Amino acid sequence: MTTDPWRVGHFDLDGYLARLGLPARVPTREALDELHEAHVRTFTFDNIDVLLRQHPGVHLDALQDKFVDRGRGGYCFEHSTIFAAALERLGYHVRRHLGRVGDPADGSQQGRTHMVVEVVLEGQRLLCDTGFGMSLLRPIPLVDGAEDDHLGWRYRVDRHDGAWAMRRWRDEGWLMMHTTDELPVLPIDPVIGHHYTSTHPSSHFTRTLVLARHLPGRHVTVTHEAVTVRRADAPTEHRPLGDGELAEWLRLLEVPLTEDEEQRLLDRVAALQVVRT
Fold first, then answer.
1. Does some domain include residue 245?
2. Is residue 277 pLDDT above 90, yes or no?
3. What is the Cα–Cα distance from 234 to 229, expressed in whole angstroms?
4. Structural element, H or E, at residue 177
5. What angle do CA 128, 131, 137 make, to 5 degrees?
6. 45-46 and 163-170 strand pairing
């Protein structure tokens, strides 16, 4: 029986920290906050490999090549797998959780297609969420009613029907992001979730571009239809994506694609835009 089911011992921690520009530090809340924010600002949230039908899977070896070696990003299963591995190598006590995106109150029936990481540090439970389109910049305590305001970005956690509900402040109200349960997560679970999100025709990741990143003072989301720029201290800007503009955003958001990958992505997005018109 393996004692390293997530293959954390094979993770290139030095390469990961070099990619983030951080030294290895002993586990503290300050070091955890720094690592979380550096990860979110370094790697994009995106589904590019899904659209290109070239996704390598969500096992750690493939993600290490993608994130650490190439500097690419991905979506929740990838971000949380990488982040959890780094935390464990650094000596943190880590738990992995799955959740459902959206608000259960709206009647939608979402699968457990989101993944987060919990850290238990100095007796406190902390929720790390590096792989959401509008990710936390730093962990938030897993305490009913806990709120955090970092650089003007406000988030809240509530206990909701046996799960943890994550919300962010938007338009003078709390918008539900996802609910996370506490069932044990095995390495096969993100593989199954990823199979659905990357191949099922009803998954929006198979038919919609999503590319997002925290930049200084703003958060940018680009889809095949629109550009959304959010600032903590100003109204949200939302407008259609202009012709030829995607290539500019790939540069600005520093997405390290090969020339072939970029051209195939531009072609794929153009096809999606035709379908929508």
1. yes
2. no
3. 10
4. strand 173-180
5. 55
6. unpaired
Determine which helix (DSSP H) or strand (DSSP E) holds 213, and give its type and residue range. Answer: strand 210-215
Those residues with Cβ within 8 angstroms of residue 127's Cβ, 6 or more apart along the chain or in another chain = 116, 117, 118, 136, 139, 140, 141, 142, 157, 164, 166, 180
pLDDT, tens only, 186-244:
999 999 999 999 999 999 999 999 999 999 999 999 999 999 999 998 999 999 999 99
Q: What pLDDT is stored for residue 225 in this prediction?
A: 97
Residue 82 has pLDDT above 80, yes or no: yes
Q: What is the CATH number of the domain that holds 47?
A: 3.30.2140.20
Whether 3 is covered by a domain: the verdict is no
Question: Is residue 197 assigned to a domain?
Answer: yes
Q: Say how many domains are in the chain.
A: 1
Q: Which residues are catalytic?
A: 76, 114, 129
Q: What are phi and psi of 29, to 5 degrees?
A: -65, -40
State the burial class of residue 102 (Cβ atoms within 10 Å of its Cβ: 0-12, 13-18, 19+).
middle
Minimal CA–CA distance to 102: which of 110, 92, 90, 91? 110
pLDDT of 73 above 90: yes
For the record, the structure tokens of 238 come out as: 């939302």
Q: Is residue 110 part of a domain?
A: yes
pLDDT on residue 110: 83
- For residues 275 and 236, the model is more confident at 236
Average pLDDT over the chain reads: 95
DSSP 8-state secondary structure symbol assigned to residue 65: I
Q: What order of strands is seen across the sheet that includes strand 210-215?
A: 45-46, 210-215, 218-223, 226-231, 234-240
Range of the domain at 51: 8-276
